[in-house]
């Protein structure tokens, strides 16, 4: 992932994710049918994570995913950010559904 | 259950369930009446579980069902996922009603 | 209560109740007036209970009714389940109003 | 209060109250004006109480009224129950406004 | 304040207040303009207080006003009660704005 | 600030603030344009503060501003009070945005 | 940042941010297309921070950004303040998305 013009450091339990846009064509350049891209998973790459959130007693709860993870994103929620022409989303750690391997 | 093309690792207290689609025909191939399939339980097979959720003091509360369990699913809620042509749902542990034996 | 084709094991603080349907006729077979059945209590028999819910510190709080209890059910809430032609409901322990003796 | 055909044992912090219906006539049988009954307090007699509710740490908090108390009821809330031709209500302890002496 | 026909003992953190109705005439009997009464403070006299509310750990938190205090009442909320022709209100301790001296 | 006819003692974590009405004319009496007063900060002077609110364990959390502070008020919320022809507001400590020096 | 006519000291966990208005022209004075400014990040400079918020046990949780930080602001929320012709916003620490480097 090429370096960004500026570094975004999420606060508290937030996670910065670069959306993975499903490919529209096969490696050979053949256009994929609409149905194929529609069924692609809503996923993204973790670019940066916050320090974590506080418990009621002031302890820090670490975020459950780390930079480089591929994660499964929820249908709704998150804040959209455009930087250097790329699509990023900021979620709370608790909104992210799963890791993908 | 044949291996999936990708592994989905639920985060926190989430549970990945593969929906059990009620059979439409008898083993001998006779079509079952609509009423039979309508009354089938809304159930699924647990495919993967998260590490659990945090209590306020930062302790981890384990998820109450485990991989391989057959579980009774709520009417609403959960996030739908399609992978390798199969229907999966992701629920919070707290949404799942019961185990079925 | 005849054995069910499958065992339903409620999770967390849930309670499985078989609804008690008010009799429509007297023991001698005489049809009871509509008003009689309308005034019958909304009650059921506890068939299975979950292990209980967690306190914030991760302790388990046991469910307050046990298998075999006859209980007074709330007007709303609960999840309906049909199994072997019988009507069951799953409630949270906290939704059940009272025991009936 | 004549014994009921069945005993209702409220669960958790619930309170079973028999509604006190304001008298429509004077002891001598003279019909009271509508305005008199309209101004009567919304009160009831405590018939049974639950064991109490749990604090977050699993301690039991006793209910604040006891069997035999006359209590002032809120305008809304509670669950209505008819048994042996009498009107009962089930409230949470926290809904009941005051004791009346 | 003349004794009431019945004693009202608020439960938990509730406070029983007798509303102070702004005078419509001067001591000499001259009718006050509407604007004067409209600007009167919404106040009342504390007649009885409950024992207090429970903290999560089951400790009792005392109510912050006492019998005899003149208090400033919120615009909304509270439950209205008429007894012996007088207007009373029951509030939660937390709803009462201030003491007036 | 001239003494009020009556003392208002806020309860719990409430703060009594006298609104600072933006001047309409310059010291020399010249009328200020509407736009000038429109841009004035929504501020007030703290006249009295409550003892503070309780934590869950019954500890008292002191209010974060003190008598004499000039404070920045939120656009909404608070309860309006008129006394001796002056405009007062009662806020919860948590609603007040900032101190102004 | 030139000194303000008055100092604003945020209370509790609030953060005072001066909005960074995206430049409309290039350094040479050429007008930038609407699309360029539309894609600018919603950011601001931290001017002052509060002492922090209280945990349930009365501990102070410090604010997670400090004076001089450039921060990424949420689309909604915050309170707008105009002072000395400049645009400021007051947010809760928890509303601010990330730091920008």
Distance between the termini of chain A: 18 Å
Strand order of the largest sheet of chain A: 7-8-2-3-6-9
- β-sheet strand percentage of chain A: 35-45%
Largest interface: A-B, 21 and 21 residues
Q: Oligomeric state of the chains? A: homoheptamer
Series of H and E elements of chain A: EEHEEEEEEE
Tally of alpha and pi helices of chain A = 1
Number of E strands of chain A: 9
Structural account:
Chains A, B, C, D, E, F, G: This is Mitochondrial chaperonin hsp10. Chains A, B, C, D, E, F, G: One of its GO terms (molecular function) is metal ion binding. Seven copies of one chain form a homoheptamer. With 101 residues, chain A is mainly beta. The first copy, chain A, has a single domain, classed as GroES chaperonin (10 Kd Chaperonin, Protein Cpn10, Chain O), CATH 2.30.33.40. Helices cover 5% and strands 38% of the residues of chain A. Chain A has one helix and nine strands, in the order ββαβββββββ. In chain A, the strands form two sheets. The first copy, chain A, has a six-stranded antiparallel sheet with strand order 7-8-2-3-6-9, with no helix packed on it. In chain A, strands 4-5 form a two-stranded antiparallel ribbon. The first copy, chain A, is elongated. The two termini of chain A are 18 Å apart. The interface between A and B is medium-sized, with 21 and 21 residues.
Tell me briefly what this model is.
7 copies of one chain form a homoheptamer. With 101 residues, chain A is mostly beta strands.
Brief descriptors of the model:
101 residues; chaperone (chains A, B, C, D, E, F, G); unfolded protein binding (chains A, B, C, D, E, F, G); 1 helix; metal ion binding (chains A, B, C, D, E, F, G); 9 strands; homoheptamer; Mitochondrial chaperonin hsp10 (chains A, B, C, D, E, F, G); 38% strand; elongated; mainly beta; 6-stranded antiparallel beta sheet
